[in-house]
Amino acid sequence: MKVVENMEKSIQSIGEKRIRVNFNPMGTDEIMFKKKEFASLIDGLELQKKETSDPEKLRIIATAQTKIEEAAMWTLKAMT
Q: What is the pLDDT of residue 26?
């Protein structure tokens, strides 16, 4: 199992944690690029959560983040 050493030392965003950007056993740049894209989407939604107190919007954001995690899983599975 390869772990990207330089990313391990920095503090990860919620998106990076959920997508597990440090986990890249194949060590390919393509996988890392996709993981960072998905992590960025989750992080963007996390910023929106901080700008609202509307429970419905918060629920929708949480659902979207979960679906992004699922999409990442299937995308990465297809790539490997």
A: 87
